[in-house]
Amino acid sequence: MSNKLLILILIIILSSCKKELELPTWDVDLIFPIANSKIDIFDIINDSSISIEQDNNDLVSLVYEKELLNIEIDSFININEIVGETSTKLDSLKFSRIVIRDTTTMGSLLNDLPFGTTLFPNGSSTTIPNLQNIITNDTVTIDASDYFETMTLSSGDLSLTIRNDFPTDLSNISFSLINSINQNIIGTFSYPLIPSNTLQTQTLSIAGQTIDKDIIAILNNVDINESNGNVTIDYQDAILTKLVLENIRIFEATAYFPDQEITQKLQEHIFDLKGAQIHEIGIKEGSVSIFATSTITDTGRIVFNIPSLTKNGIGFTTENIVPPTNYGQFAQFDFNFDNYTLDLTGKENRIGGDTINTIYTELFSYIDSTGELVSLNQSDSFYYYTEFNIIPEYAKGYLGRDTITFGPESIELDQFNSILSGDIDFESVELNVNIENFIGADGQLTFFTLNSENTNNGTIANIGIDENTGNNILNNNYLINQATLSNSSLPIISSSQSITTDANLLLDILPNKLNFNGEFILNNQNNINYNQFVYLDKIVNSNINIKLPLSILADKIVLQDTIEINNSNDLEFKTIFLKIINGFPLSAISNLISLDENKNFIDSIIHNFSLPSATVEYGHVYQNSETTLEINNLDISNSSYLIFTTELSTSNINDFVNIYSHYNLELILSGEIIQTLGE
Amino acid sequence: MKKYLIIFIIFFSIKNIFPQSNLISFDSKISIESNTLDNNILNTFLYGGTINQELKDHWIGLSRKNNTVNGELSNGISFSKNLQSGNLLFSIFDRNNLNININKDLLKLILNGNYNYQGELLEFNSSNLRITRYQQYKIGYNLKLKKNQIKLAVSYLQGNHNINIVINEGSLFTYPNGESLDINYDINSFITDTSSYKFFNSNGNGFAIDFSSNINFNKSEINIYMNNLGYIKWNNQSINNSIDSSYSFNGITINNFNNLYDSILDYNDDYSLNIRDQNINYKTYISADIGINIEQKVTFYNIKKIMLGINSKWQPLIDDKRLTFNKIKQGISESNYKPKVYISTQIPYKDFNILCNLNNGGYSKKTNLDLGIEVNKKFTYIIGSKSINQMLKNNNKQFFSLYLSILKEI
């Protein structure tokens, strides 16, 4: 029974309700620092175009510097021209001299004569009788295929020399040359008498004739005259025939052309440098391209020399093969001339002496025989030209007179953009226009316009008097002296010119633009001086420099800044505390409003929060002011923009206050949040 | 609670195991006591709900400089075999201990945050938390020497889980408007292997000793004892985290308004928590009882004897000193237990005995009436509470305790 009771109790316990364990929740009120910062003038001035200087007393000056002018004069010195266009026809093509020889001995003649060798044995001494027509219509084929297939000559001389080594005279010699293909007579020679042991030559012109490689030479007739008494019969005695074809110029030919120079062009070319008279250019980047095309089916070759173009004292030369081209396309040969020196005085030892802007080149063109049979005619030709592209590193000589205008231009000034209203006065503002001339030539700089402009209210303030000269800056011609070289080489010793003026009035209008225009005249006095120079990476530097010591009077200067915010923060602050320890002699009344993404007003977060100035005595801050701003229930979850507006005034609106480098503004931001624990 | 009742019922269904003239008992005990916090707080922490400002103010109002909570849940069986010269003792107990001491300033910070304490230094020194679960296997012998007795016992301790967090030093000073926080802390924590939370995981073992001496003088009996003096050494899967630093927190220092991100990066470098963590084996002590009592035979109505005694506990937080007098002092002060002075007696009434113990001290550091009822039937049942006065309160109970023993002579 007791066991049953126990089991029953067990079942009841197992099935009884049990309260689940859970963690409690509670809110805790936390306060903690969020951020802190110490801002001095170096942090406030956040503009890369403004640098900060401080003097021995730590007084801060803001220095604004910007490039004013950028003068370019390399446009007239750049060389980008095509020169030396040459076309060479092959009517000037030469062909080498052709010589064909033949020998007829006495022995061979006597062999052909009936009983000749019997009647006139070799070595015998006998009287040779009159033998008429001893040779008639003796034909020999001359094979000139080693030289040509066919040739039509515009000019050429055919000469026949017959040497009589027989012991008796020869007479009534008649000789003909005939083309074997068309049987045209090329030439006929006639010698009435050739005494023993003498030679005779006859020459005739074969201009306009076409000659084939196979020529038939016909010895029409030779008479042997009776000898004068007994003579020794020597079978080795001979009649020597020499046929020479020379001074050949062709109309067309299919032949084995020899290597030969086609043309040579030695010339000077003058570059147009727009009034500059330059005798030397150092090349920074340069190239020359030779374009050649040839119609001949044999290989051409060009040799191009530019003695004017040297590197380490060595002139430029190149030799290139011009392959046969089809359809007139050009073969291009490019040459890099970086770091070369270009002498523009023309050919060395030229008549009349050195000149300027002149380059001297030599071009030779050749046919390189390939050893193949080639067909050419007089219309075949070489055509080529040369293209120069040179960017100079420097130029020496007379640079010419050039007027370079600059502007109207404007420099945007955004330093005062945040200032909406109010009066600010600077105790002093110094403006300098610095000009540094790296050109080895005099110049003249004139400003026609130099002013500051506030486009919001349309006010313009012109620059005033040059403190160095006492003259008005505008329309005043400033002579800029030439730079010089150290021992005629780098480095350049520049010359400087400075224009100084008080720019207080320029800045008083809180400008957002600086406008200027003017002109720079190179070689304004037009004195030709060949010792001038220009290095194109350093020409004329000019900048505007505004030095503003922070000794100011500010009366309700209203600054505004818009901050775009990203609301990814999950923390909701019940209260925000901002403690400000102000070490600047400026007081501020500030407002902060929030806007939505469409820039519609949501809430005024800070309203007329007053930050007192630090206490100033004898021109220096001797006690900082402390203020704490408390913002309750700050909710910027729907805000996309915050607009911060502050009205600044100096601690004393009658005396200038100085801003020193050690002044700072300390900000301590902390916040209170209610955080729920246990969730 | 339901689980332990089930175990008790199942155990009691087992038929007699042991032979006669011996004693077997089942003991179960649960107690939660505090010197300041009451059952409202405990219920809120156990069963959820919102702690509102009224409750917070109530707790802070109740709190003292050091606020102790001690919880104990133990169940076990014991067996005592009578021998000619004494008793042989065996017992197996499952023990769960929770001991917390929270500095009042820490309590204020946890409940309220620091907003209300600007310009005030909050100190959290001596705050600590100990949670231990282990099984104790004890064997002992009670030697009878004429009228006196000497008891010696040794225990094997199998540790399951332990968390030990000690704030050696801690303080927070909040400047007005939260401009800056001065933070100082030196916290050491130990926790056993967290890869498994099974109840009977073996993450460490140790041993403990018991010693007591019972001396009879005519009608008086003096008992000096030292029980459960021991430690558990936890294995090297345990994790020790220690953090200590002292700095002023001023928020992000913005050096460059153009690039706030750089400032945030600097912030991350400036304020490192300096956490060192390592796997180590470490040692903790179990709560030892050290005391002395005198039992005097009396004739006063039905009261036959009265006992006067003092009990102290010894349990250092960290094993960082050799056993010296300083270590003994350390153990007593770090036990969070005020030596308990008590007077107790048994009052027979009809079929049962009323067991009374009036005491002052302990973890509650208050006067409590320990009242139990002993009923002798087939089994001897003892049921009671260590603080019946608190248990009978309608509200604001600072001591909850129940114990149950079932004994049987076999």
Short summary:
The complex is a heterodimer of chains A (679) and B (410). Chain A is mainly β. Chain B starts with a helix and ends with a strand.
Write the layout of secondary structure elements.
The complex is a heterodimer of chains A (679) and B (410).
Chain A: H1 2-14, E1 22-40, H2 41-44, E2 50-54, E3 60-70, E4 79-89, E5 94-95, E6 98-105, H3 106-112, H4 116-119, E7 125-127, E8 131-143, E9 148-164, E10 170-179, E11 185-194, E12 198-205, E13 210-212, E14 214-224, E15 230-232, E16 238-255, E17 260-270, E18 277-294, E19 299-311, E20 314-322, E21 331-336, E22 341-343, E23 358-368, E24 374-377, E25 381-398, E26 402-412, E27 419-426, E28 430-437, E29 443-454, E30 459-462, E31 477-480, E32 484-486, E33 489-493, E34 495-502, H5 504-508, E35 513-522, E36 533-535, E37 540-549, E38 551-564, E39 575-582, E40 586-595, E41 601-611, E42 615-617, E43 620-623, E44 625-632, E45 641-650, E46 657-658, E47 664-677
Antiparallel strand pairs in A: 1-47, 2-3, 3-37, 4-25, 5-16, 6-16, 7-15, 8-14, 9-12, 9-13, 9-16, 10-11, 10-14, 16-24, 17-23, 18-21, 18-22, 18-25, 19-20, 19-22, 19-23, 25-36, 26-35, 27-38, 28-34, 28-37, 29-30, 29-31, 29-35, 32-33, 38-45, 38-46, 39-44, 39-47, 40-41, 40-45, 42-43
Chain B: H1 2-12, E1 22-34, H2 39-47, E2 48-50, H3 53-62, E3 66-82, E4 86-103, H4 104-112, E5 121-123, E6 127-145, E7 148-174, E8 181-191, E9 204-217, E10 220-234, E11 239-249, E12 252-253, H5 260-270, E13 275-279, E14 282-285, E15 288-300, E16 303-314, H6 325-334, E17 338-349, E18 352-362, E19 366-376, E20 380-385, H7 388-391, E21 399-409
Antiparallel strand pairs in B: 1-3, 1-21, 3-4, 4-6, 5-7, 6-7, 7-8, 7-9, 8-11, 9-10, 10-14, 10-15, 11-13, 15-16, 16-17, 17-18, 18-19, 19-20, 20-21
